[in-house]
Write a structure and sequence with these properties.
By secondary structure, the chain is an all-alpha fold. 64% of the residues lie in helices and 1% in strands.
Amino acid sequence: MLCYSYYRARSVLHPAVVTSALWLVMLVLYATIDHGLYPLSDKFHIALLCWGLPLCIASLAVQHIRIGIPIVARGEANLTTVAILQPIVAICVVIATAAILYRGHVYDPDNLFHGIRTASVISLQGGKHTVSFPIWASLALEITNMLLLPICLYLLFIEEKRNWLSIGLTIVLVIYTVIRSNKTVIAQVGLAFLCIMWYKKRINKRNFLFILLALFALFLTAHLLRRTSDSSEFVFLDFITMYLFAPLPAFDHVLNLHHPLIEQFHGEYTFRAFIRFAQWFDPTITGNADPFNLNYWVYTPVHVNVYTTMFPFYADFGYIGIAIFGALYGATGGIIYKHMTEGNGASLLIYSCLFYIFVFQFFADFGMTYFWSIVGLVIGCTLLFTKVRI
């Protein structure tokens, strides 16, 4: 599938190429490296076929379908909009950083980064914070998360400005990313830069290795900073194993469970982003508050609580769910990629910002799980190109 995907797409950035290459490398490494994890059963390989084939076929098929670009995202960027948004984002990121630091201090005065991580997990699980932000601080957080990364990518690689503002915002982006103490966000930012630099042919072997090393260093830094005094002893090999390979046998464990995963209704994992709207009609609906670990950690024998991108779709709808959402992810990624290669700037920013979803399939689902964050990013990228005056 990798050879056919690359033959049709002629690009390593295409969703089909990324997906097939990723899983080929993962399976080969898993079978050859002495990682100490449990072997994968046939059920895992069947699930992977249900995911990979529809994704690749759908992403390649949409290349031959004429799909229009929304009028708000066509053409060149709106320079007036960009100029107005830059100082707004600069102010918002300062407020957002202060708010995150304050909440982290409240949750854990002894370890700020552990407190920030704790607050992030509570938000992900839909819990209620002991510290609530005023509306203006919450708005600053949303604006920062929507626009900081797209504006940095736009200034550096589309408008190609290397002035104090673009460099300053990029430095602030890195600092803000580290402060959030979230490895997913670090991956998103690093892979967004890698994707757009590769597409723009602005990367060489030296830059490529530098970005990968910087990404790994930030991963390790975030992991170490949020550790507490009662955390287990840090073992570097276990760190690599846990984040690179362990999600595979963890999902294989889920596939071989003999008890139901559903607590209330089919769709509670996949569509958990919409539960708040369903509660308008039925307040008793809660869904599963924990989208990742089923309220326990899997022993693989490394303890892990992530189960690859396929988990929520299998938990809700079985193998057919994996295939359907594989096709949906492939078609969506293929459409954005198609518009990007046709020269659409908004699509280039959107694809770069969401590139990590395809690269980190082996880890967890970052599409439906973070649905509203993705919607915000898409709006932020599109806003830079809308012709509506603000």
